[in-house]
Write a structure and sequence with these properties.
The complex is a heterodimer of chains A (147) and B (417). Chain A is α/β, with parallel strands linked by helices and 147 residues long. Chain A contains three helices and eleven strands, in the order E-E-E-E-E-E-E-H-E-H-E-H-E-E. A five-stranded parallel beta sheet of chain B has the order 12-11-10-13-14, sandwiched between helices. The chains are: A alpha/beta (147), B alpha/beta (417).
């Protein structure tokens, strides 16, 4: 098992933590309470889980164009994830992170792991959920990753 | 990215700090998505005026302080308060004040205060092929699909950046080659009554969004008579369950005179057959509880059109509501209702007509929890998370007749083969 993965970097920065993997795409507006960091989309498999301080891994964004607002508000309220990894580039998630840098000078990296890599990383993390993931620009590093 | 001399001046701060910030955000996003240049846009629609917390005010204030002024026709989406009827607002005084403040900041930048998620039914609308920068997921999908205008799925913040610079990064749906249909949904053996019913559209949209994700769906088998209100319901639902920014309906939408044209003459990536059983399953998924007592009915996401009120009124007259009943719309429709004497009649029937906002973006519903019933796929999707109500989805007639008895009424015949 590789411990370093090359991603496409949408928004630069570094962030690390344990992961929260979402099984379905999420609209942050209507899907995340930025005051608490809780996933509130009641039809979502990870409803009730908290993104705060986690590396958030999700297949894609969806839904509302207010997702960028919710991400910025989560950064302001200090409930945001430390990094975001998706399988499909989502312009609205990237936008929220770009504006967080512009307005608050806070870095929240957003990267895309291409198809098979995304699947492989998720599979590894599901087997070893205690793994710490570190995102540094285009690099995704699984620390203490078992081989 | 290649910038013109004027764009370089904007980025260097020579046109003020607001333009500089906007340019920085636009060029960053352009670089991320591989745009080679910025292109001029004809209009913008802004979603950032809805209050979610102080960060929205921080951002807008920074632009206002930096001298931001829109340079293209720019309309505003819903805010978090009905400015004409503030008594509907059920939140705190501080929230109301902040919601109003954010709306004022966007007005100060020169945006037109139409406060609606259906700008395509209010203002002069974009023409086929025009480049625009719109936010609000349902407005995006309507503008691309039904009008044939070209916008990406823009989010809050970049919308106003485009409006004050008159530019958008050239990538994605701004380019004709990226508007090709990718996944074909064939309606198969749908009973005729259902095929011509309004309720088909949000259910089909919800199915398409959940299956197509961010791909461009093409739909075959919809009646050529499909109305704009029906297509708006389809798009809004698809943009809730998925990231759909553009769909083609063969024989109906401007870029799909034929299936082959919609696919740009290439084979689709996938083909999906949609049966009445698939639709029934999806209708079930739109509700979060079993049929039973309901506490409130809410309609109007996207905002109700005058034509939709024309459908609603005769049913309401026959079955006046016994529970809270809210319809969300915009000010032009409100004025038309007033002129026709319908507004007072709606009030007498116990219907609250809300403008400038809607029930899933801000606290309006008076009932303290329980079950909300709606004919909107978008309301059905966002109600449980945003306002904590269980939700039941139904047709317009089902909603009205259920409100009359405080208990779900079903027209099951509609879904039978």
């Amino acid at each position: 098992m590789h411990t370093n993965w090359q991603a496409t970097c949408l928004v630069e920065g570094s962030g690390s933590g344990q992961v929260l993997i979402l099984d379905e795409p999420l609209s942050l507006w209507g899907g995340l309470n930025p005051q608490t960091g809780e996933i509130i989309d009641r039809r979502h498999p990870q409803s009730g889980r908290t993104v705060t301080g986690r590396v958030l891994i999700l297949p894609a964004g969806r839904g509302s164009s207010s997702a960028s607002s919710i991400l910025l508000e989560a950064v302001r309220a200090e409930t945001a994830p430390t990094a975001i990894i998706t399988a499909e580039a989502d312009s609205i998630l990237a936008l929220g992170a770009v504006v967080a840098q512009e307005i608050y000078g806070r870095s929240l990296p957003v990267v895309v792991l291409a198809g098979e890599d995304f699947t492989a990383v998720c599979a590894h993390l599901s087997t070893f959920p205690q793994t710490t993931v570190c995102v540094q620009n285009e690099l995704v590093i699984l620390e203490n990753g078992k081989t | 990215m290649k910038l013109s001399r004027e764009e370089q001046a904007m980025l260097a701060g020579e046109r003020g700090t607001a333009v500089q910030i906007a340019m920085r955000i636009l060029t960053t996003m352009g670089r991320v998505f591989g745009a080679r240049r910025l292109i001029p846009i004809e209009s913008a629609h802004i979603d950032g005026c809805l209050y979610h917390g102080d960060s929205g005010i921080d951002f807008a204030q920074k632009l206002v302080d930096g001298g931001a002024k829109t340079v293209v026709p720019t309309t505003l989406n819903v805010g978090a308060i009905d400015l004409l009827h503030p008594e509907h607002f059920q939140g705190t005084a501080v929230q109301a004040q902040k919601a109003t403040r954010l709306m004022q900041l966007y007005q100060q930048m020169g945006c037109s205060p139409i406060w609606t998620c259906a700008p395509y039914q209010v203002e002069q609308r974009p023409l086929t092929g025009q480049q625009i920068a719109w936010a609000e997921s349902n407005a995006i999908v309507f503008a691309n699909s039904v009008l044939g205008a070209c916008t990406n799925r823009y989010g809050d913040f970049i919308d106003i950046c485009a409006a004050i610079t008159g530019r958008a990064p050239e990538y994605g749906l701004h380019l004709p080659e990226n508007r090709r249909g990718q996944i074909v949904f064939h309606l198969h053996n749908i009973p005729d009554r259902l095929r011509h019913a309004d309720v088909l559209y949000p259910v089909l949209g919800y199915l398409i969004g959940s299956r197509a994700a961010n791909k461009i769906p093409v739909i075959t088998g919809l009646p050529a008579s499909s109305s704009e209100d029906q297509l708006k319901a389809l798009g809004a639902a698809a943009a809730s369950s998925g990231a759909v920014a553009l769909f083609h309906a063969v024989g109906i939408t401007p870029e799909a005179p034929t299936l082959d044209t919609a696919l740009h003459g290439r084979p689709p990536e996938a083909e999906i057959t949609v049966t009445v059983d698939d639709l029934k399953a999806m209708r079930g998924h739109l509700s979060t509880v079993a049929d039973g007592p309901i506490d409130v009915v809410a309609l109007g996401s996207p905002h109700f059109s005058l034509a939709e009120f024309e459908q609603l009124l005769p049913i309401l007259r026959q079955f006046p509501p016994a529970i809270e009943f809210i319809v969300c719309t915009h000010r032009l429709v409100l004025a038309a209702l007033q002129k026709r004497g319908w507004l007072s009649e709606l009030k007498e029937l116990g219907v609250a007509v809300v403008v400038d906002t809607c029930v899933v973006v801000t606290p309006i519903v008076r009932a303290r929890g329980g079950t909300l019933m709606t004919n909107s796929g978008k309301f059905a999707h966002y109600t449980p998370g945003n306002i904590g109500f269980s939700v039941i989805f139904g047709s317009l007639e089902e909603c009205v007749r259920s409100a009359a008895q405080g208990q779900v009424w079903r027209d099951e015949g509609l879904w039978e083969n």
